[in-house]
């Protein structure tokens, strides 16, 4: 399903969480992650004070350009399906970029970071509140065009495609980090509260 002649690609998707229920987008991940996602709204962020936003610049001008390309291509997919464009939320991009950097630097690939936080907990720790949050990941090795590879792969995967095309999503952030010849791509989708 995914081209492999010049690069390797690994994609990951996490269930999106909604105020009262969980949409199981990936059976294996939703069975493991669903309980912590469901309780995260009340136990993690209900009375937590706003955490200041940190600043993590793009690793390079080229990677900043690739982040922009991912956003443009995702919004083109949404437009092609009659949906409104996602608005870039710089704070979500910081969270996504930080997760990509952490995956690259700590040699892991997944929605749960070494501290045990999923995408909802990382977003809420930054002081953002949301009804719906989703996350798509991509790991591209030796890719000439990681933006197009990421978007086309996500659109071929039902779970990732659902995150991209969920009409409730209004904001997004894209963060990419490169380690050697490997690109770590994180995109967070959100319906803000």
Structural overview:
- With 193 residues, the chain is of the alpha+beta class.
- Helices cover 42% and strands 24% of the residues.
- It contains six helices and six strands; from the N terminus they run E-E-H-H-E-H-H-E-H-H-E-E.
- The protein has helices at residues 27-44, 61-80, 90-106, 119-125, 146-156, 158-165; strands at residues 8-17, 22-23, 87-88, 130-141, 171-179, 182-192.
- A six-stranded mixed sheet has the order 2-1-4-6-5-3, sandwiched between helices.
- The longest helix is centred in the middle third of the chain and has 20 residues, at 61-80.
- The radius of gyration is 15 Å and the shape is globular.
Please specify the SSE layout and strand pairing:
Layout: E1 8-17, E2 22-23, H1 27-44, H2 61-80, E3 87-88, H3 90-106, H4 119-125, E4 130-141, H5 146-156, H6 158-165, E5 171-179, E6 182-192
Parallel strand pairs: 3-5
Antiparallel strand pairs: 1-2, 1-4, 4-6, 5-6
Helix pairs in contact: 1-4, 2-5, 5-6
Keywords:
globular; single chain; six-stranded mixed β-sheet; 6 helices; alpha+beta; 193 residues
Query: Average pLDDT value?
Result: 78
Per DSSP, what share of the residues sits in E-state strands of 2 or more residues?
A: 15-25%
- The percent of residues in helical segments reads 40-55%
Tally of contiguous helical segments: 6
Q: Any idea what the radius of gyration is?
A: 15 Å
Largest sheet: 6 strands, mixed
Category from helices, strands and their pairing: alpha+beta
Order of helices and strands: EEHHEHHEHHEE
């Amino acid at each position: 399903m995914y081209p492999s002649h010049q690069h390797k690609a690994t994609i990951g998707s996490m269930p999106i969480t909604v105020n009262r229920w969980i949409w199981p987008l990936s059976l294996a991940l939703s069975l493991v992650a669903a309980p912590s996602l469901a309780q995260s709204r009340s136990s993690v962020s209900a009375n937590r004070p706003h955490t200041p936003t940190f600043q993590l610049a793009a690793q390079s001008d080229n990677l900043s350009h690739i982040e922009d390309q991912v956003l443009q291509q995702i919004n083109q997919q949404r437009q092609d399906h009659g949906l409104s464009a996602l608005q870039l939320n710089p704070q979500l991009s910081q969270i996504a970029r930080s997760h990509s950097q952490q995956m690259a630097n700590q040699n892991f690939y997944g929605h749960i970071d070494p501290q045990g936080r999923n995408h909802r907990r990382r977003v809420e720790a930054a002081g953002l509140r949301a009804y719906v949050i989703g996350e798509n990941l991509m790991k591209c090795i030796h890719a000439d065009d990681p933006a197009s590879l990421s978007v086309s792969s996500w659109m071929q995967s039902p779970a990732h495609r659902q995150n991209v095309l969920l009409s409730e999503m209004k904001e997004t952030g894209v963060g990419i980090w490169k380690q050697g010849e490997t690109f770590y791509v994180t995109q967070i989708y959100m319906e803000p509260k």
